[in-house]
Amino acid sequence: MNAFFTDLADQFTMSFITNDRWKLYLKGLGMSLLIAVFALALGIALGVIVAVVRTKHDQNKKHISKGLAFANVICQIYTTVIRGTPTMVQLLIMGFVIFASSKQYFLIAVLALGINSGAYVSEIIRGGIMSVDIGQMEAGRSLGMNYSTVMKDIIIPQAIKNILPALGNEMITLFKDTSLVSVIGMTELTKVARDIQARTYQPFMPYIGIAIMYLVVCMILTYLQGKLERRLRRSDR
Q: Rounded to an integer, what is the distance from CA 111 to the centroid of its chain?
């Protein structure tokens, strides 16, 4: 038994203490969080655009312009393709096909995960918009406001409250999905663990260590999400 714990201590020392390797984990964790934040921002931007186009198309079936019909088809193709293919495959295509000559791994990772997230966020936002009484849109239009103004000032602010829990879950999912970007050469938390494992030939501590880090961050994000939801519920009273 003593030999077992001595071996664990040696593995911990080699994986985290030797050559200040713990700093590499922190740097990798920071990079993973940075990728997740920027990818979520891109995903929300794309999601809003797609959701507004699809919602406007669905709510105005009697008076649909050719431009809106074409945009709706593009949005449908986008969500179908992205949601129907694996995230890792999308990363590989983005890193080794579309941007094969680029070494901007951070931008490639953000772009790939952001585009992936946008397809899911668009459905989240569309559901939130549809949950707002359509009478509010009609009331706004009757006051002379155009569709974009009603959406921006009336509908979307109400929809955001309904979709915040789902967006929080999307942030957590994106953070975990950053573990995939090492396939294109990006150095984040998982890549750091793989590199250290290759040097020490000890897989247990690096991989268990990053699993704990992912878990702790996800628990913190879940806690913050719950706190925000409770505050929003209090503000509605």
A: 11
